[in-house]
């Protein structure tokens, strides 16, 4: 693996401006630690700001819309779809949730193989527009079977968005810059989840004529579908790209962006490799643990997302209107708390204590939903459960990305983890069954057990990785991940 500096012509033409003696001193110190570093902290800070502004706004918007489009079925369900499409018969609602995930799982790895070759802008904008068309079509179905078909198509088109986005974020940022940024990316989805209920309540006030368009739930799909299509078209002109395709960077900025990652992880630029070689990268057993972590967080996250309004309505006993409105405050709390803890994770340079803490909060929350009979206490439990389950998704992704070296391997890791997340979605969409109302005891018990498993698995793996770091420092084992100087960051 090469640790050479950038081509001489780039360095020679670069206009390196040192603003003060302090900048000179810090540049000398940095160069002693990293012989490839020939830029000032001020230059790096300015570049980071530019990358943030170019990568995140549209990426966050489309991810928020994707989660809104896949989870709005719960709001539509309690807004009249349950009876209009006869989803109140047997397990039809659970089946409608379930069919989203097989295609979602199968399309993860192919999508991440495509995105780097076509580019994020072309591929992601196509996917966004396509699932917007599918959501729009849901507003016109007249029976539950076509809804199942459209839910399956939605899963296929949404499959590439999350792993592709995570892959792109990890390609731009250093190890201890990722947690806060992935958390920020995920909170965009939490904003959609948090205000989705209020948006759905507003859209259900639309009534047109006396036919099927008078059925208020249809307008949730029609308006949100049109919004997604519009954003999909706009994203072709505004969405960010991978470093090697980023034409918006000046030569000097491109050099700094590349060398930052090379110095941090010893990671060379992306090169196309044969499919067989790419698939061999996934044989690392640590990847199974990372996938287990994400499976657990997805099981809990999808369960609370799909059944949150139903638990408020049928489980705790709030009215339809109150249930939709009450979906927002727990997510607002989650956004603030998860961003704060992600910042703390980058600050203390440790991931596992944050994951363990958030898993413990989720356990406490579900116990409060289950045990007391007072609605206010159970609602507080919902706050804790939403925070504990939803915030750990970003924490687990950052944890896994920080233990992985190589653009190709991280691409496979992103796809594998989101595939495991799809399996978690299958579990999460079936553990809360309508026949278990109002306590939903089986679903809560499954979630409690899985959160406990997440805590044990994360702690055990983290202690193992710390031991590997120590052995590498003592020279008792070879280079970690085959890269000299690399250390895990649990």
UniProtKB/TrEMBL annotation:
Pfam families: MFS_1. GO terms for molecular function: transmembrane transporter activity. It is a multi-pass membrane protein. Residues 55-469 form the Major facilitator superfamily (MFS) profile domain. Keywords: Membrane, Transmembrane, Transmembrane helix, Transport. The chain crosses the membrane at residues 93-115, 122-141, 147-170, 182-204, 219-240, 287-312, 324-345, 352-371, 377-400, 412-433, 439-461. SUPFAM superfamilies: MFS general substrate transporter (SSF103473). InterPro entries: MFS, MFS_dom, MFS_trans_sf. One of its GO terms (cellular component) is membrane. Its main location: membrane. This is Major facilitator superfamily (MFS) profile domain-containing protein. It is found in: Membrane.
């Amino acid at each position: 693996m090469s640790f050479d500096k950038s081509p001489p012509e780039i360095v020679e033409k670069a206009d390196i401006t040192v603003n003060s003696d302090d900048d000179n001193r810090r540049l000398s110190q940095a160069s002693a630690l990293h012989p490839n570093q020939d830029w000032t902290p001020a230059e790096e800070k300015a570049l980071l700001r530019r990358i943030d502004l170019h990568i995140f706004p549209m990426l966050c918007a489309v991810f928020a819309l994707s989660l809104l489009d896949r989870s709005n079925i719960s709001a539509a369900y309690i807004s009249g779809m349950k009876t209009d499409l006869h989803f109140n018969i047997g397990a039809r609602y659970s089946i409608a949730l379930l069919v989203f995930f097989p295609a979602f799982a199968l399309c993860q790895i192919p999508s991440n193989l495509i995105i780097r070759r076509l580019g994020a802008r072309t591929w992601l904008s196509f996917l966004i527009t396509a699932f917007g068309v599918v959501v729009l079509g849901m507003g016109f179905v007249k029976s539950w079977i076509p809804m199942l078909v459209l839910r399956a198509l939605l899963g296929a088109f949404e499959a590439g968005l999350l792993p592709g986005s995570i892959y792109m974020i990890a390609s731009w940022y250093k190890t201890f810059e990722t947690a806060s940024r992935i958390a920020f990316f995920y909170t965009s989805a939490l904003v959609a989840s948090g205000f989705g209920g209020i948006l759905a309540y507003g859209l259900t006030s639309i009534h047109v004529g006396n036919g099927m368009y008078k059925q208020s739930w249809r307008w949730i799909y029609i308006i949100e579908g049109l919004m997604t299509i519009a954003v999909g078209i706009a994203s072709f002109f505004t969405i960010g790209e991978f470093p090697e395709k980023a034409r918006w960077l000046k030569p000097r900025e491109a050099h700094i962006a590349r060398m930052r990652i090379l110095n941090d992880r010893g990671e060379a630029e992306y090169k196309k490799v044969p499919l067989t070689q790419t698939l061999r990268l996934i044989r690392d057993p640590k990847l199974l643990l990372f996938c287990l972590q994400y499976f657990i967080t997805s099981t809990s996250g999808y369960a609370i997302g799909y059944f949150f309004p139903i638990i408020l309505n049928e489980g705790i006993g709030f009215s339809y209107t109150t249930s939709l409105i009450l979906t927002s405050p727990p997510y607002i709390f989650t956004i603030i708390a998860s961003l704060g803890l992600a910042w703390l994770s980058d600050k203390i340079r440790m991931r596992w204590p944050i994951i363990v803490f958030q898993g413990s909060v989720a356990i406490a929350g579900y116990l409060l939903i289950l045990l007391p009979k007072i609605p206010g206490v159970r609602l507080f439990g919902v706050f804790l459960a939403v925070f504990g389950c939803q915030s750990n998704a970003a924490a687990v992704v950052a944890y896994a990305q920080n233990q992985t070296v190589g653009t190709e391997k991280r691409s496979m890791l992103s796809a594998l983890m989101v595939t495991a997340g799809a399996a978690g979605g299958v579990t999460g969409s079936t553990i809360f069954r309508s026949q278990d109302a109002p306590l939903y005891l089986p679903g809560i018990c499954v979630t409690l057990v899985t959160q406990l498993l997440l805590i044990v698995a994360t702690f055990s793996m983290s202690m193992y990785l710390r031991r590997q770091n120590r052995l590498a420092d003592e020279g008792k084992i070879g280079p970690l991940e085959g890269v000299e100087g690399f250390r895990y960051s649990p």
